[in-house]
Amino acid sequence: MRHDHLITSKQLSRADIETVLDHAAEIDADRSAVADKYSDRLLGLLFFEPSTRTKLSFETAMKRLGGDVIDMGSVDSSSVTKGESLADTIRVIEGYADALVLRHPKQGAATMASEFVDVPLVNAGDGAGHHPTQTMLDLYTIRENAGLDDLTIGIMGDLKYGRTVHSLAYALTKFDAQQHFISPDSLALPREVVYDLHQEGASIREHDGLEEVLPSLDVLYVTRIQRERFPDENEYQKVAGEYQIGPDSLSSASDDLTIMHPLPRVDEIAPEVDDTEYAAYFEQAHNGVPVRMALLDLLLGDSDD
To answer: Which of 55, 216, 255, 275 could be cross-linked to 51 through a Cys-Cys bond (beta carbons 3.0 to 4.6 Å apart)?
Structure first.
């Protein structure tokens, strides 16, 4: 995998994805092979939006590689409050670090920021746009549980604002996967994404309910309603809680169904599901460390050439 930056899953070929997943599996099996490999490197974290799993797993990944991190901290305690532009912020922190991880509320921010820096930059989420490293750990989890070819996957919830959904849908076009998108009309997959998926030859169908498709699914990928993306609170209240999964709603599911969620969840998956054989979302979160270790190793290793 040779890329200066990782901005979107659309830039990755199937070979790129498999390189990352295979390397993550190697690291997961034996982390000592890459321990202390980057003892002289620093990873810069620039998170303009809240994050738990992504931020902590990147920090963990870099430290398990032997490196360290510098953290811009909260926006409120940074020079952003003084009116500093993203371009200036990113160029300053580039001077301190060997690679950068950026999360920003504006779609396209990572693309713009990448134009100002020479060190590897990773998009950790840009508004309702893309989240390619989440996609990588999602694919790793899917491969471990169900395989990536001859796959039938249901993606349910907020498909309009959910950047994890957009990234995953694009990546799955590289594999033999049937994608079923389940949402209310107001949160359906954006038409431009549907168009792109069709252009890539993807097999997709859209539904307003889970019941008809559930028995055929190998994987059910559930997302929360992205309350913070809604311009109108009243619009959020119309759809809040509309799609919820509990043990009773899974009666027609295959015994081999894998349920995933990028987290955090609100009420879309009942806690009772956690103890079933279906639940893989905490495994999914755990996979963020070896996958991000693999990505950082490949990006930092490439930057040496």
So the answer is: 55
Residue whose token pair is 């619009």: 235
- Residue 3 within a domain: no
Active-site residue set: 53-54, 82, 103, 131
Q: What is the pLDDT of residues 22-56, one digit of tens each?
A: 999 999 999 998 998 999 999 999 999 889 999 99
Q: The whole model's pTM is what?
A: 0.91
Tell me the CATH number at 239: 3.40.50.1370
User: In whole angstroms, what is the distance from residue 49 CA to residue 22 CA?
Assistant: 30
